[in-house]
Structure formats: structure tokens, C-alpha cells
Amino acid sequence: MVENEKKTLPVIAMRGLTVFPNTSLHFNVGREKSIEALKFALKNEGEILLISQKNINDEVPKIEDLEEIGTLAVIKHAIPTSPVEMRVLIDGVRRIRITNFTQYEPYLMAEYENYEQVDEEGLVIETLKRKAIEYIKEINSVNQIANNDLLVNLINEEDNRLFIDKTANVFGGKHQQEILNAKETVKQLDILVEVLANEAEIAKIDKIISQKVQKGIDENQKEFYLREQLKAISDELGENDDVDALEEKIKALPIENSYKDKLLKDLNRSKKMPAISPEYSILRTYLEFITELPWNKESEDTINLVEAEKILDNDHYGLEKIKDRILEFLAVRRLSNDRKEPIMCFVGPPGVGKTSIVQSIAKAMNRKYIRMSLGGVRDEAEIRGHRKTYVGAMAGRIISSISLCGTSNPVFLLDEIDKLASDYKGDPSSALLEVLDPEQNFSFRDNYLEIPYDLSNVLFITTANSLQTIPAPLLDRMEVIEMSGYTPEEKEQIAIRHLIPKQIKANGLENVNVTISNGAITKIIEDYTAESGVRGLEKQISKLLRKVAKNYVEKQDKGIETKKIAITSQNVEKYLGTATNRRSELSHKSSIGEVTGLAWTSIGGEVLTIETTIFDGKGDIILTGKLGEVMQESAKIAISYIKKNAKLYNIEDFSNKDIHIHVPEGAVPKDGPSAGVTIATAVLSALTGKKVRGDIAMTGEITLTGKVIAIGGLKEKSLAAHRNKIYDIIIPKENERDIKDLPELIKKSVTFHLVDRLEQVFDLAFEDKLCK
């Protein structure tokens, strides 16, 4: 044994390679530490220590991740192949043992001592060596791992140490480090013979597979030969077990036997197909999709009304009637096993919390939550899926979503159901009829599945901004729950409880002392937003806090300490700029031919001004402002009523006058009958020259006889008037019953004038009494 002599040399950690003495090896070096170690060695006689990693997946191995035994090598060549990689040729010199790592950065350095094997002679050694040579010949006859020269050198090598090192370098495989670690020649040869015996057995099996395949093929069928060879290999390795597992899964499905038989027939058909066949891929994907569906897997409902109420209150401010209806729904679900209650449809303007309240329902029931947006969906296959015969076929979005969520009873939100479209590919709203009908959805048939799937346990909930575009048969299957806009006070509370904390976190200001006063929130609501919901309010708060974050970071960079940032009504404009809400600038002055009306749209209530002017002409009625058909008819009814009753109001014959009625914001479409009273008042004002009060708004449909009849959307219209500082509203008497459902703020601050005749409207709207 060579005398142990401790020296220090640079170290390269070898990933997936073990270097033996008396061998030469090419390899690439790419890690920064390894390149630095290589450069150091090249400057100092070229000696370097090569140590294998225990785990080849470690990009940056620690000292404890390296083997103790390695090889001292001499660098013969080192050529850069790129700016970050070198190609190296080394000669292994002798085994070494690392005794101590002396340096980790910028490259590894270690003390080492020689670690030489104990040379042994005898019959056991000779027998093991001969057995190893026998196995080498057997392996090489099949796989040609070593070339003839190398094979001759190995067989004729008399030095046991050289024989072991060279053989282990070629045939050692994953046992190379174990051979390198062994000191005794007998142990090294034992390991080597065991490895070679295993390789020889593999070579025999490979030969058997090749012969088996060769018998079953024709010389000219090369493609078929390759497929048969793959099949034979799979049989030998037992890789067809997954087919058996798939068969067991199909047999366990809770479906009718006729459908099981069809699926098993498809599986048997796929066994006979080559794996590279497109039809094989289609069939396997189809069968795997069906077996992975959650046929009987349900999440357990945990309906506790006290907890559910807490969740709803924590997630949403206000909406008391909506919450009561949800709690009623949950109570019925808990008491009854009948799953055929109507589908809930939350209808309201954007930003009032329709989507988020469905998430709260899922949380309260302890169910998975799925959201599917129907906006712009125009292909029936989106709902029902494609037949599997088509290339790229897949299940519809309903079945696919259920498969992804992993349970058969999620809370499934069909968002924006009013935005469905249709074209030549079909009508998705018709496909939804089966999905949303409790009498039918227990056996929903997706075109891709071709097997009925039970959707009766799924809790479907829909949302919409408007009911007008929802087809009547679909609407008939849903219970409509209206979600109106918020009052300013409700918006303020929502901002304080939800929006501001959320945006402070989103903008990284949790550790900054930022306060936003109630006055600042009120100013943002009044001057920078005009909406029924709070989506625009959240955007403005986000914008404000982004400005705060920018100013805070700039001061930090300048070394200025900021203890507190206070946003008040006085400095809001500094962050958000000039107020953008022009609606608060409505003129409240009395004028002729100009009347303030109230409208309801899918995004909430609106205040609109109707202007009328009279001039010489041919008795034409000119309507501008992109008015819809119903609104045009309201204008004609108003003018016909005034013509009939012209003498009552001392109006001269105006058959030779043109009447021009205009509703500003001409690019925005407008329609509906509720502007009837507003148009009649504006026309009468223009004809009589009498001023109409600018501090009063009105809404109501009219008839030819002058009756004022009920309208819809009273809450949204009242909120719009309140936003624009109008506190007197004329409404039909028939809507008196709706006043009790209005927010307390509106009932306290707004005066409602109930009318059932146009004459009453004129008495209230005109500054001066009209002569009758």
C-alpha cells in the first residue's frame, strides 16, 4: 500500500460519472465552480480530484452530498466549447479518499490521502476473473458494447487491478462507485461478476425478444417488425398492466351494463391497434377520461345556518334580502332530499357582488366551486361537447369542469347567462335547457361521453345583468333574484370593510401607515364614480394607493422618513386628478323644453335629460339620440295626447310646427316606455313656453288617455337621482308598494310624488300653473 500523504488539490463534483484509475475519459464541464477548479488545476501541474455526487439531480451539491472515495486525475486537454462550457480529456491516476474540504468558494479544494486496493492472488481471484471474462464475451456477442480491440485488451489483461478498473469503466453501470469504494480485489471482482451476470441475462432476454419478433414478420415488412418488437418488449417488461387496470376501472363504473360492454369492446379494439395509430390515441384518451370522471364522488355538505350567515356577512355588506333568500335555500337543502328546486339566477348591474356571493354559497356548503363564463358562447358544442369521431374532440365545458374539480356535486356558476349568442353551429341556450331542468339533468348526455351523466347533485346558479336577452324557456327554469345597486352609505362601508384592506395588500402597503378618511371615500364615490356597483370604486381606490406607493418609495430613495400617509377629502384630487363624474354637474335650474327623466339599464339607474324645441315646418316629429322603437312610440303617444288636449292648455294649432325631441349622449342606445311622462312634459313646456323645475325628476309610462302606469327598476332610478342630488321624484301611483323595499337612505332623503294622471305630473313639474 502506498504511504498516505495528505495533499490539497481542487475538486470537481461529477454528476452521473465515476472515473477509475488507468482509464481516460472525455466529459463536459459547465458549472461555474467546476470551471474555476479546472482553470486552477491547469495552472498547477494539471492534477485534480474527481468526486461523484450521491444525487445527480443536485445542481449545487453540498459537501455532504459528495462521495468520500474518488480518483486523482491528470488533465490532458481542456478546450472551451462555449463561453460557459469546456470539453476535458483526463487520465485517471489512482484512488483517493477525501479527508477534509479546505475551501468551498469560488471552487472546492480538499485534502486527500491515497486509497489503494489490497492486491490479492489465488484460485478464487482467478475463478472470478475468468467468470467475468465469460460474461463479457456473452454480452458483447449480443450488444457489441466494446469494440474488438478493447475486448482483446480486457481478456488478455494479466494485472488484476488494471482489469478491474477497465472493466468497471465499461460495464460497471450504477455499481461503479461501489466498485471504486471496495479495497479488496475479491470484493471488487464479486461486485463486477454480479453486474456482468445481470447484464448477460438482459442480453439473453433481448436476444429472445429479437428471435420471437423475427419469426412473426416478413422480410419486407419493416414497419410491422418495429411494432412487433415494441409489443414483445412490452410483454417481457409487463408494461401492459395499465390496460388491465383500465379494464378493472371500466367494470367498476356505476353505469348500465350495456354501456360497460360498449366501453370494454372499445378497450379490446384498442389492444389490437398499434400505439402510433391516431385511432388508438383517440380511444385511449376517451376511455381514460370516462374512468376518471367523479361518478359517485361527492363532497359532504356541512350546512350550518349560523356559520353560513357569518360567512355571508363577512364576505358581503348589506344585501339583507338576498342573504335571507340564500339562508332559506340552504335550510330547505338541509331538510329535504328533493333536489328539484328552481335554479337561482342573480340579476343586477355589474359590480354588485353576484359572482362573489355564489362563492360564499359554495364556502357555506363546503362544496367545490366552478365558474363558467357564458359571455360570447355561440357554439352548442361548448355545452354538449363534440362527438369523439372528430379530430381534437373533447367533452363539453360542463363535464370537463366537473372532471377537473373531482366531485359530482360542486356549486356550478353559469356566469353572464344573458350574454349567450347563437349561430349556424347551434344554439347553446337550447342545450342549457337540459342542464338546468331538474326533471331532465339526472341523465345529461354529453356528445363526447355518449353515456348519461347525473347532474342532479350539481348546484347550478346563474348570473345576468339583464333578463331581456335570456330566452323565455330558459328563464322559466330559473328563480330570478334581483340584486340592485348600493346606496352611497353602503358603498362607503364596503370600501372600509373590503376594498381598502384588499387594495392595501395588493399594492404592498401593509407595513405603511396609510389612512383614508370617510370624507375621502365619499368624495371618490360622488366625484369619481357613477355606478350601481363598486367595481369602479375599487379601481379608483387602487389608483389612489398606487400613487401613494409611488410617492412612498420615492421618499424612501431620497432618505425621507414617512411616518403616516393620510388621505382626506382635501387631498384626494392630488392623487386622482380632476373629478371625472360629470353627472353631478347637472343643472338644477328651471328651463323651457328641458326635463330630467330617469332610466334603468343593465348597468344600473341613469339620469337623462330630454330636450325639446319647436320651430316652423310641416308638422314633422324629429327624434334623435338613438331612441329605440318603444321610446319613439312613447314620444308619439305624448304628442297625440297634447294635440287632443291642446285647448285645455291654451295651445294654438301647431300642425305647421316641427317638434324635435332629443336625448343627449346620442351614441348610446336608449329604449323603454318609462320616459313617456318626461317626453310629454318636455313637449308641453316647449309649446307653452313655461319653465319646468330643474330640481325634480320623473319616470312613468303613459297612455293615449293620459294615464300614468307602473314602471320597473324604481330602486336603481331612485339611486341615480340621489347620486345626482335630485330629491324630488315623480313616479306612478301603482309603484307605491315598491317604496317600502327601497333603502332607508332613499326613503328618508327623497320625496316621492305619486301620480296616476299626466295632469298631476304637469302640476308638480311646472313652476307656474298651466292655464286650463
Can you characterise this structure?
The structure is a single chain. This protein has 772 residues and is an alpha/beta fold. The chain has 26 helices and 26 strands. Helix 2 packs parallel to helix 6 (185-215) and helix 11 packs antiparallel against helix 12.
List the helices and strands and how they pair.
Elements: E1 7-14, E2 24-29, H1 32-43, E3 47-52, E4 69-82, E5 85-103, E6 108-114, H2 123-143, H3 148-156, H4 160-171, H5 176-181, H6 185-215, H7 222-237, H8 241-252, H9 257-271, H10 278-292, H11 305-315, H12 320-335, E7 343-347, H13 354-365, E8 369-373, H14 381-384, H15 397-405, E9 411-415, H16 428-436, E10 444-445, E11 452-453, E12 459-464, H17 472-476, E13 478-482, H18 488-506, E14 514-516, H19 518-528, H20 535-557, E15 565-567, H21 572-576, E16 591-592, E17 594-601, E18 604-616, E19 621-624, H22 629-644, E20 657-662, H23 676-688, E21 691-692, E22 696-698, E23 701-702, E24 708-709, H24 714-723, E25 728-732, H25 744-749, E26 751-755, H26 758-765
Parallel strand pairs: 1-3, 7-12, 7-13, 8-9, 9-12, 14-15, 17-22, 19-20, 22-25, 25-26
Antiparallel strand pairs: 1-6, 2-5, 3-4, 4-5, 5-6, 10-11, 16-21, 17-18, 18-20, 23-24
